[in-house]
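pasting for ref
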Amino acid sequence: MSQESDAERPVSLSERARLHLVGYWRSWVTTGAVLSCGVLIGLAAGRHHSSFMRAWVGAALATPLAFLAGLLCPPARQSPRHGKSRLASATLGMILGCGVAASAWFFVLPLMRTETASLAMISGLKPGTIRCIWVRSARPTGKRWQMKDAAKLDAFASALRDANGYYPNHPTFVRSWHLTIETKGAARISLDCHYQAGRPDEVVFSFQGGGAYYGTGISRGLREWFGRCIEGLEADEVQPADGTSSSA
């Protein structure tokens, strides 16, 4: 009986994994090095508040180059079986790598830029630049009020100086308000503000507009402002524009 050739001999799954690790260690190291460079560039070049998101985008954009660099490395050990699957692996890997990079470039990166711009806009408000704030409680019987007191408007702008980006993880909100800020430059900013369980000293807020989401932030100063200017308001403390409250 003739001896089975190496190309025809059955190979177990564990043996196949070992051959790939040993035979293509140069490719693994090269791919990891390029991805690490992408992570470092993302961390250094990005302005987004989340280090994880900057690192992820950097790695995602570097994925096609990392895969190509690893593919070009000659294998340390190769059997006929490896040669047959190399082209299929290369094609599938490039498709997946380009897909990851495209999702980061066309979807994740624009959202991160929007979040950064929205946070810079709200934290850049200065005393004297707000014309009025419409306040509406999220309670079923909540009313919509217009705040025009200059001292409270200036305090609101000052309170947001410590605003930072925030990614809540399945938060529980115990009380909520919707704020529409009208600036003297005719810009309108819509915020959904919340008291979050487990964070009694901060307010979580999200930017809204036309049903779209533009980022989430958190502020300790805004919590102090809500305590002084919003909680327990009576109708004679915040006057509606026309002298009567309007339903939410």
